[in-house]
From TrEMBL, chain A:
Residues 3-119 form the YCII-related domain. Belongs to the YciI family. This is YCII-related domain-containing protein. It comes from the Bacteria. SUPFAM superfamilies: Dimeric alpha+beta barrel. It comes from Petropleomorpha daqingensis. Transmembrane segments: none annotated. InterPro entries: Dimeric_a/b-barrel, YCII. It holds the Pfam family YCII.
Automatic annotation (TrEMBL), chain B:
Residues 121-172 form the RNA polymerase sigma factor 70 region 4 type domain. It holds the Pfam family Sigma70_r2. Keywords: Sigma factor, Transcription, Transcription regulation. One of its GO terms (biological process) is DNA-templated transcription initiation. Signal peptide: none annotated. Residues 23-80 form the RNA polymerase sigma-70 region domain. One of its GO terms (molecular function) is sigma factor activity. This is RNA polymerase sigma-70 factor (ECF subfamily). Transmembrane segments: none annotated. Residues 194-285 form the DUF6596 domain. SUPFAM superfamilies: Sigma2 domain of RNA polymerase sigma factors, Sigma3 and sigma4 domains of RNA polymerase sigma factors. Coiled coil: none annotated. InterPro entries: DUF6596, RNA_pol_sigma-70_dom, RNA_pol_sigma70_r2, RNA_pol_sigma70_r4_t2, RNA_pol_sigma_r2, RNA_pol_sigma_r3/r4-like, WH-like_DNA-bd_sf.
């Protein structure tokens, strides 16, 4: 069965100082998403986490494999919508994965669906 | 070329036109790999060329090609099964193919062939692929158009097209785009996407009449398949009507010397009556209701078809339909065609003013039918030198030999009339 990483990009300013209600509502939306995956035949959630804000990110860059990495503050790419979390999903095919991705809670951004590269197949 | 060689060439050409999409569609279902399926079909045609030249054209070319393709697909599956230490699913496929053996009935009678074709069309027009990739894949894999010609039709280079096709096929395989018919939930969206691509195939067929005679027939085949899949989609029936009504004129579209014959000058007795009747009946059914862009285009084609000769065309009605079409689908080419209708209703000067409104659109900068349409209106308004300049400009832009022959003819007429 193919696996897909759902990369959840969203406007992270909303989460600068969320209220308890906002957090509860967001958790409920993710709960609904989990139910939708469970209800889809042959699909399952293999993993998934929410990420702390990009302000807490550190990036190591290097311009050659043997070069000394340079440590910088912040995410690898500065974008308005930032990577805020991910799910690792097993699905029958891309159509089922995209159907589930539509139900993935993102308020002002998008979900990138990337097939997992499985070696030896 | 020997007469025998000619017969082989004709038989192969006919078989290519009718069998290519079906063979690819059936093989891709078995192999689940578009690239490999295309290769099998191509190999089968290559071996047909060699074998038929020595042994003659078989009684049933379609069955011959089906068997040849199937043998290649079976070989490939066997090889894969060995390489992957006999994956059970593959072994099952090999057994099934071997057991079924050569087809006892010619293709066309198998019941699920239309479904195979639909699955292939919907695979090639999947919304996860870029619009350019969808058209290129449909032309290449479904219509069997060679890559070089796909590039010409899409106004890009051959390497760009080849790279685009490779990328799209890689995405289908690695992202797991499935070969399936859509369910009730996504049928509307998927059929609409497929209709757009089939319409482009139809446009390609008619905008470059010298390119591939079979392209229009293939677009018609695909439109029919989509109507069968989704009879509730009125736009699918609109596109079928459009394909029928434009295809009905194929025999009258070219003069004996190969140049394009415009609608107004066509011998209407040479139109395909059966296609006309079917197309008009569809338009009658569809038209009282709010119509989408394919139905409106079919309705315009129906107006032209209904008129016993060009002079009897109901131009005010054609213009009303163009107004509706432009509102539904505001593209510069529609606006240009509408300008031609304006000229018929309000005279060439009004038509020229309508053309000026779209002439600056960069999308039409290299479109030969813009200066050609303006040339005709300038000629009719008495501006002979303006018409000559416009025809020369159109000739400079036109690449298709049939189009060029037509434009040359018009230029000669203007010179003779001086």
């Amino acid at each position: 069965m193919p696996q897909y990483l759902f990369l959840l990009y969203d406007d992270e300013s909303r989460w600068a100082a969320p209220s308890d209600e906002e957090i509860a509502a967001e958790m409920a939306r993710h709960g609904l998403f989990a139910e939708a995956v469970a209800a889809a035949e042959g699909a399952q959630i293999l993993g998934g986490e929410a990420l702390q804000s990009t302000q807490t990110a550190s990036t190591l860059r290097r311009d050659a494999a043997d070069a000394e990495p340079l440590l910088t503050d912040g995410p690898f790419a500065e974008t308005k919508e930032a990577l805020g979390g991910y799910y690792l999903i097993e699905a029958r095919d891309l159509d089922q994965a995209l159907e589930l991705a539509k139900k993935c809670p993102v308020s002002q951004g998008g979900v990138e669906v990337r097939p997992i590269w499985k070696f030896g197949e | 070329m020997t007469p025998g060689g000619d017969a082989v060439g004709t038989a192969l050409e006919q078989a290519h036109r009718a069998q290519w999409p079906v063979l690819v569609a059936t093989t891709v279902r078995v192999l689940r790999d578009l690239d490999a399926a295309e290769e099998c079909v191509q190999d089968a045609f290559a071996s047909a060329l060699r074998t038929w030249r020595t042994d003659g054209v078989p009684a049933n070319p379609a069955a011959w090609l089906t068997t040849a393709t199937r043998n290649r697909a079976t070989d490939r599956l066997r090889r894969l099964a060995t390489e992957r230490r006999a994956l059970p699913a593959l072994v099952g496929e090999v057994e099934r193919l071997t057991r079924d053996g050569a087809p006892s009935s010619p293709p066309g009678e198998a019941t699920d062939e239309g479904e195979d074709l639909l699955r292939l069309v919907l695979l090639c027009t999947h919304p996860a692929l870029s619009p350019e990739a969808r058209l290129a894949l449909t032309l290449r894999a479904v219509c069997g158009v060679p890559t070089a010609q796909v590039a010409r039709v899409m106004l890009t280079s051959e390497p760009t097209t080849a790279a685009r096709l490779t990328r799209a096929k890689k995405k289908i395989a690695t992202a797991g785009i499935p070969l399936r018919l859509p369910g009730p939930a996504d049928r509307h969206e998927r059929v609409a996407g497929a209709l757009d691509v089939v319409h482009l195939v139809l446009t390609c067929a008619h905008e470059s009449p010298g390119a591939d005679d079979g392209l229009a027939a293939r677009a018609l085949l695909l439109a029919r398949a989509l109507v069968r899949l989704a009879p509730e989609e009125t736009e699918a029936r609109g596109l079928l009507a459009l394909a029928l009504l434009t295809g009905a004129r194929d025999a009258a579209r070219r003069s004996p010397d190969g140049s394009v014959v415009l609608l107004a000058d066509q011998d209407r007795a040479r139109w395909d009556r059966a296609a006309v009747a079917e197309g008009l009946a569809l338009v009658r059914e569809l038209m009282p209701h709010p119509a989408g862009r394919f139905t409106l285009q079919a309705a315009i084609a129906a107006e032209h078809t209904r008129a016993p000769d060009a002079a009897a065309t109901d131009w005010p009605q054609v213009l009303r339909l163009y107004d509706a079409l432009l509102a539904e689908w505001p593209t510069p080419v529609v606006a240009l065609n509408r300008a031609v209708a304006v000229a018929e209703v309000d005279g060439p000067l009004a038509g020229l003013r309508a053309i000026e409104e779209v002439a600056a659109d960069p999308a039409l900068a290299r479109y030969p039918w813009l200066p050609a349409a303006r040339a005709d209106l300038r000629r009719r308004s008495g501006d002979r030198s303006g018409a000559v300049a416009d025809y020369r400009h159109a000739l400079f832009l036109a690449a298709d030999p049939a189009d060029r022959a037509f434009l040359q003819g018009r230029l000669h007429e203007l010179a003779d009339g001086a």
